[in-house]
Design a protein that fits this description.
By secondary structure, the chain is mainly alpha-helical. The protein has five helices and four strands; from the N terminus they run H-H-H-H-E-H-E-E-E. Its cofactor is [4Fe-4S] cluster.
């Protein structure tokens, strides 16, 4: 009995070591530059840049297939940060920059069709079929993708007032460098 347990324990150790080796040897990592570009983008997943999300847009920028000025939610600050990272020229935004906003559902008008839920790329809308829906403000990125599919036009975009939680959206992040 003790021999069987010892053999099973030894087998578990050997299997664990083999799996650990395989996970290290065959680990696929993303391009570090794509990671940096993606970190600058606002993660709204709105598609206003012409790509289905921030990561595909970052990959296209990295390959030279997309300009750095296609992201309205990132604003001109985002364009500046991308230009600094990539050593490119700052260009004006292709689309109009809008104030940051979140979706609001008029719950008296909502018919519970779920079309807005299906359109939301970040799952910021909760509700059930034929029941009233609502927005989880903390999750809403303001992408506006929920507005067009609503058949009763009960969704509006409400501007977000500047406060301590969101003031960084308006101003670029300043990185301090240590002086030697």
């Amino acid at each position: 009995m003790i021999t069987a347990i010892a053999i099973m324990a030894l087998g578990a150790i050997v299997l664990g070591a083999a799996l650990g080796y395989a996970s290290i040897k065959f680990k696929v990592e993303g391009d570090p530059l794509v990671e940096k570009i993606d970190a600058i983008l606002p993660q709204t997943q709105c598609g206003q840049c012409g790509y289905p999300g921030c990561r595909p847009y970052a990959e296209a920028i990295n390959k030279g297939e997309a300009d750095i000025n296609l992201c309205p939610p990132g604003g001109i600050e985002g364009v500046q940060r991308l230009a600094d990272l990539l050593g490119r020229e700052v260009k004006p935004l292709e689309a109009e920059e809008k104030p940051k906003a979140v979706a609001f559902i008029d719950e008296q008008t909502c018919i519970g069709c779920t079309l807005c839920i299906q359109a939301c790329p970040v799952d910021a809308i909760v509700g059930a079929a034929k029941q009233m829906h609502t927005i989880v403000d903390d999750l809403c990125t303001g992408c506006e993708l929920c507005v067009p599919p609503c058949p009763v036009e009960c969704i509006t975009m409400e501007p977000i007032g500047e406060n301590l939680d969101n003031w960084k959206w308006k101003y670029p992040v300043i990185e301090l460098k240590k002086v030697a």
